[in-house]
Amino acid sequence: MKQCTLCKQIKPLDDFYDDKRLSVYDAKRGKKMRKNSSSGKQARCKACHMKVAHATRDKKKQAAATQRYQERNRGLWKTLPAGTTKKCTGYQGECKHEEGPELPANDKYFSQKAKCKYGLNPRCRVCHAAENKGYHARKKAARGD
Ligand SMILES: [Zn+2]
Ligand SMILES: [Zn+2]
Predict the structure, then answer these.
(1) CA of residue 6 to ligand 1 center, whole Å
(2) Which of 15, 48, 70 is the last residue in one of the domains?
(3) Cβ–Cβ < 8 Å for 103, 88
(4) Of 12, 16, 41, 107, which has the fewest CB atoms closer than 10 Å, so is most exposed?
């Protein structure tokens, strides 16, 4: 019998999978050693192992879905009809671009950002640069130099 580290139930060894990572290389002795403790079984029972494996798989699936969702707009601006514009959200309340805030929706005016509208950054390149500059200036001021 062996206690599962997750559900804390004491179960027969048959309820645990064999631990394949049991042998570890012992550099001192120069050979593979069995880890102490072990009954040669995993710490978690089969039921818990499956639950955990399932959760990880779901998480991976979810991450892939999130990525697909975030990537859905990648390059979308390339497929827009000629003359399509996009409104820059501006920096400090206004667009700093001389032609803004309504600017042609392409990568000349906006940097690419897959998860945003048309796959473009909400701010035009000028505002984006202004924001970066502002950010660094604030950082500099905070440091006091
Ligand atoms: Zn368990
Ligand atoms: Zn702008």
Answers:
(1) 5
(2) 70
(3) yes
(4) 12
How do residues 10-44 score in pLDDT, each as one tens digit?
999 999 998 876 566 667 777 776 655 556 889 99
Q: Are residues 47 and 100 in the same domain?
A: no
Rounded to whole angstroms, the Cα distance separating 141 from 100 reads 29
**Judgement on whether residues 64 and 45 belong to the same structural domain of the protein:** yes
As a whole number of angstroms, the distance between CA 140 and CA 108 comes to 29
pTM score: 0.57
Closest listed ligand to the CA of 3? 1
Among all bound ligands, the one having the nearest atom to the CA of 99 is 2
Only one residue has tokens 């000629």, namely 82
Q: Which ligand is nearest to the CA of 129?
A: 2
What are the DSSP calls for 63-115, one per residue?
Answer: HHHHHHHHHTTTTGGGGSPTT-EEE---BTTB--STT-SEEESSTTTEEE-TT
117 Cα–ligand 2 center, Å: 15
The string of pLDDT tens digits covering residues 88-122 is 999 999 999 999 999 999 999 999 999 899 999 99
